[in-house]
Design brief:
heterodimer; A: mainly beta; five-stranded mixed beta sheet; four-stranded antiparallel beta sheet; B: mainly beta; 0% helix
Chain lengths: 110, 113
């Protein structure tokens, strides 16, 4: 399985943009890049995913490097509710084992 | 929206008891997963299933078994609960129709005393 690397923790001020990086240097051409987040005492929830092009949705934006070896999840204006652990994973087919790394713990400072 | 329902949010069981954790999904997804999550260890995959009556071991299957008799239901079984199985258990299902998006239940907090 291709692996991802994320910083253990990050901090952001409220109402400022947050850029959460993820490295996936062994990504293959058919791997989708997925982001999930886990709020305290809840199961992880889907945030966004992409293959090659940058993606936007109501929660966040996903910027994918041209060589696809890294990606960045962008929260445009951090709120206190965005404090969570953010996971970046790669998905190839629906039959892959789904393995999560430790993720990035995001703290938002009022 | 996909709904993944775990039958119990909080359970307290005694050492040696048989424990069933039930998970039901409402979207006819083929793939279902059971994880446990412990502080400092992240999400660890216990078992997963591609279809009815099919199961595959994850990274930490010891002490657990699973049952998938119907497509919508995936049960995790602790044959003889031990204190080191105190944890949060998460069920998930996967949609192959939307880029393999994974949907999680809210989690079941199990305490074994």
């Amino acid at each position: 399985d291709a692996k991802t690397t994320q910083p253990n923790s990050m901090e952001s001020n409220e109402e400022e943009p947050v850029h959460l990086p993820c490295n996936h240097s062994t990504i293959s051409g058919t791997d989708y890049i997925h982001w999930y987040r886990q709020l305290p005492s809840q199961g992880p929830e889907y945030v966004i995913h992409g293959l090659t092009s940058n993606v936007n949705n109501r929660m966040a934006s996903l910027a994918i490097a041209e060589d696809r070896k890294s990606s960045t999840l962008i929260l445009h204006r951090a709120t206190l509710r965005d404090a969570a652990v953010y996971y970046c994973i790669l998905r190839k087919t629906s039959y892959d084992k789904v393995i999560f790394g430790p993720g990035t713990s995001l703290s938002v400072i009022p | 929206d996909v709904k993944v329902t775990q039958s119990s949010r909080y359970l307290v069981k005694r050492t040696g008891e048989k424990v069933f954790l039930e998970c039901v999904q409402d979207m006819d997804h083929e793939n279902m997963f059971w994880y446990r999550q412990d502080p400092g260890l992240g999400l660890r995959l216990i078992y997963f299933s591609y279809d009815v009556k099919m199961k595959e071991k994850g990274d930490i299957p010891e002490g657990y078994s699973v049952s998938r008799e119907k497509k919508e239901r995936f049960s995790l079984i602790l044959e003889s609960a031990s204190t080191n199985q105190t944890s949060m258990y998460l069920c998930a299902t996967l949609s192959s129709s939307s880029g393999n998006t994974i949907y999680f239940g809210e989690g079941s907090w199990l305490t074994v005393v």
